[in-house]
Amino acid sequence: MMIKKYLGLLSVVTSLTLGGALLVPANVYAKDAANEAVGNSGQAGKSSEKTVKIQTAPLQDELRRGFASNYLRSHFAQSRNDWSAANRYLGYLIGQASREDELIKRSMILALGAGEFDTAVKRAERLDGLGEKDSLVLMVLSLNSLINDDARLAITYLDDMPAGDTTEFIRPLLKGWVLAGDKRIDSTLFNDTPLHQYHKALIALYLDNKEQAAQVAAHILTTEPLSLADKERVGDIYLASGNRDKALPLYEEVKEAVKENHVLNSKLTMLKNVTGELTQEQLDSVLPFVHVRSVQEGAAQAMYDMAYLLYIEQSSTSTRLFSNMALALDGRRFDARLLLADSLVQAGRYHEAIEHLSSIDENHPSYLETQRYIADLMAQMDDMEGARRLLNALFLKYNDVDSLIQIGDLYRQEENYKSALKIYNKAANFMGSEIPEEYWYLLYARGMASEREGNWKSAEADLKAALVYRPNHPYLLNYLGYGWAEQGLELEQSLELIKRALQMRPEDGYITDSLGWVYFMQGQFEQAVPNLEAAVELLPYDSTINDHLGDAYWKVGRTTEARFQWERAVNYATSEDDIAPIERKLLYGLDAKEGLAGIGKSK
User: Fold this and answer.
1) Which domain CATH number covers 506?
2) Is residue 117 domain-shared with residue 204, that is, in the same domain?
C-alpha cells in the first residue's frame, strides 16, 4: 500500500516520546555553577579560584539535586503515561541546561500529547529560534499560524519543512488547505493515493465546485487497492456533490461487508426515506466533516486522517499527538476525541479517556454510544455499580434498550446469571413480541446466561433463534454445538456446526477443543485425542481443555498421561467446584463418572 511508506513519521515521533536518550547524569546538563560564581565575584587569579570552590560547591550540589529529581519525576510520570505531569516536571529543567534543545523538543511532544497546544507552540517557537529545522516543530508552527489566520506565515513554515516521508505526506495536505483559503486548488500538490485525492475532493466541495469533486471521486474508484473505508468516503463525496444515485450502491457494498455500522446505516436510512434533493442540514447530519466550513477545519481533517493511520498501525503514542492537533484546529471533532480516548485507554489512562468522552454534546448523534462506552470503561475500572447506574439512567431517559442489554452483560461478566437473565428478559419484553435482527446478540447473550443457569431448553431456543440471523457466526455455532454435545444431544448436528466454526477460526483453541469433545462424546476416542492435543497446544493453561485431554487419554489407555493432564487441570483451575471432580479422577480414574468436566466454563 502506497500510504505505508509515509509512516516513517512513527520513527520520528516515537523515538522522541518513548526513548530514554535523555537519561544522563545531571552534571552534563547543569550549567557550570562555578563559572557563574566567578562572573559574580569580581575575583581574579588563584585566590579567586579558591574562593569560588568554597562558595559554589553547595550551589552546584543543589542544582544537580534539583535537575536529577525533576528529571526522574518527569521520566516516572511519562512511564505512567501522565504526560501533563511529565511535561510540568520537565519544564522546571528548561533554563538549567547548556544543551537544552532535546529537553525543549521532548517538552513540546509531551505538551502535544497532553493536549496543551499553547505550551507546545511556545516550545516550537523556542526551537525555531535555536535554528531547529524539524518536521514536527514546523508543523506545529504552521498549524498555529492557521489558527491565527496567518496563511502567509503558515506557508513559510511548511516550505521550510525538511525533505522526507513526513513532509511528502503532510505538507501537500496542509498547503492545499491554506491555498483553498485563497479560493484555489493546486492539483499538482496531491499524489494519487485515495487519501490525498479525498482531500482534493473536499477542497473542491469547499470551493463549491461539485462537478470537480465528483470527478475526483470517480478517479479514486480507479485506484488500487481501495479499502471499504475508502469506498464509503467516495460515497460521501458523491452524496455531498449531489450524486446520490452513485453514492447508494457504494454504501450498500460496504454495508454488505460491515453490517454493524450505525453511521453508514443512518446514511442509508436517509437515502431511502428522503426523496428529492437533500438540504445542507440533512447532509450535515450524516456527513458532519465533509462540509468543511473553514481552512482550519480542513487542516483538522488532515491531522485526524494522520491520527487514524497511526491508530491502525497501533501507535497509540503518536495517535495522541495528531488527535490533539486535530482538536486544536477544530474542537468539534468527535472522531478525534474517540481516537484520543481509545489511545488513552490503551495507556491505562481511563479517567482522562472518560473526561474526553464526557465532553460529547447530548445532541450529538453518537452521544448514547459514547455514554455506553464510558460505562464500559467504568466497569473496567471495577466500578460496576456506577456503570449500571449510568446505563439505567440512559434507558430511563432515552428508552435506550442497548443500555439495558449492556447492564445484563455486566451481570454476566460477574457470573451473576440470574440477574443477567432478568435484565435480558426486560429488554426482550421492551421490544415486543419478536426480537429484531439488529438485536440478535440479545438472543446469544440470553442463551449463554440460560445455559450457565442450567436451563438448556431455554438456552437452545435462543441460540437457534440467533443462528437464524447469524448462520455463519463461528462462536455462536461453537456454543450451540458444544452445548448439544455436553447434553449428549444432536451429536451429528453438533459435529457439523463445530466443523463449520473451525473452518472460519482454525487457530481458535476453544473451538478445537469443542471438536475433540464432540468426538469424545460420540465414543470416537482415537479421533478425539489429536484434536484435544491441538487445543492444549493453543491454550496450554486452560483447566477445562487439559481436563478434556486427560479424559481422552484415559479412554485410549494412556493412563499416566491422563493423570498428568488432570494434574495440570487442577493447577490451572480457578474454582473449588471445578477442582473437586478432577481430584476424584486422580484418585479413581474415569470410573468416577461424576468427575467429567462440566460444560466449558471458559468458552
Assistant:
1) 1.25.40.10
2) no
Q: Which of 354 and 9 is assigned the larger pLDDT? A: 354
Mean pLDDT over 293-307 rounds to 95
**What is each CA distance from 31 to 27, 35, 36, 68, 100, in whole angstroms?**
8, 8, 8, 13, 11
Report residue 148 as a C-alpha cell: 491565527
CA distance 158 to 556: 73
Statement to judge: residues 110 and 219 lie in one domain: no
Domain boundary residue, one of 235, 262, 292: 292
> Residue 508 to residues 306, 321, 532: CA-CA distances in angstroms?
34, 36, 12
Q: Supply the pTM of this predicted model.
A: 0.74
Domain stops at, among 128, 155, 184: 128
* 30 phi/psi in degrees, rounded to 5: -60, 135
The C-alpha cell at 37 is: 560564581
Lowest mean pLDDT among 13-22, 95-104, 448-457, 531-540: 13-22
Question: Which residue would you say has higher pLDDT here, 186 or 41?
Answer: 186
| Tally of domains within the chain | 3
Torsion, Cα of 434, 440, 442, 444 (10° steps): 120
Distance of CA 137 to the CA centre of its chain: 26
- Give DSSP secondary structure letters for 282-338: HHHHH-TTTS--SHHHHHHHHHHHHHHHHHHTT-HHHHHHHHHHHHHH-TT-HHHHH
pLDDT tens-digit map of 555-577: 999 999 999 999 999 999 988 88
In this structure, of 43-47, 388-392, 479-483, 490-494, the range with the lowest mean pLDDT score is 43-47
User: What number of helices (H) and strands (E) belong to the chain?
Assistant: 33, 0
What pLDDT is attached to residue 49?
35
Instruction: Give the per-residue pLDDT at 297.
Output: 96
First to last CA, the chain: 37
Residue 225 lies in a domain: yes
| Side chain identity at residue 91, one-letter code | G
Do the domain assignments include residue 154?
no
Rounded to an integer, what is the distance from CA 24 to the centroid of its chain?
34
Q: What is the domain extent for residue 53?
A: 1-128
Helix/strand/coil (H/E/C) assignment for every residue in 487-504: HCCCHHHHHHHHHHHHHH
Predicted local confidence at residue 97, as pLDDT:
60
Instruction: Pull the grid cell for residue 579.
Output: 477442582
How far is the C-alpha of 203 from the C-alpha of 212, rounded, in Å? 10
Contact of 199 with 176, CB cutoff 8 Å = yes
Q: What is the pLDDT of residues 574-589, one digit of tens each?
A: 888 889 999 999 999 9
Determine the Cα–Cα distance for residues 429 and 452; give it in Å rounded to an integer: 21
The CATH code of the domain that includes 249 is: 1.25.40
Comparing CA positions, the residue from 537, 582, 591 lying closest to residue 564 is 582
Does residue 310 lie in a domain region?
no
Residue 3 included in any domain: yes
Sign of CA dihedral 133, 137, 143, 147: negative
Residue 236 · residue 202 · CB < 8 Å: no
Residues 477 and 591 in one domain: yes
Residue 218 shares a structural domain with residue 120: no
Q: Is 264:165 a contact under the CB 8 Å cutoff?
A: no
pLDDT by residue (tens digit) across 505-520?
999 999 999 999 999 9
Amino acid found at 6: Y
Same structural domain, 572 and 498: yes
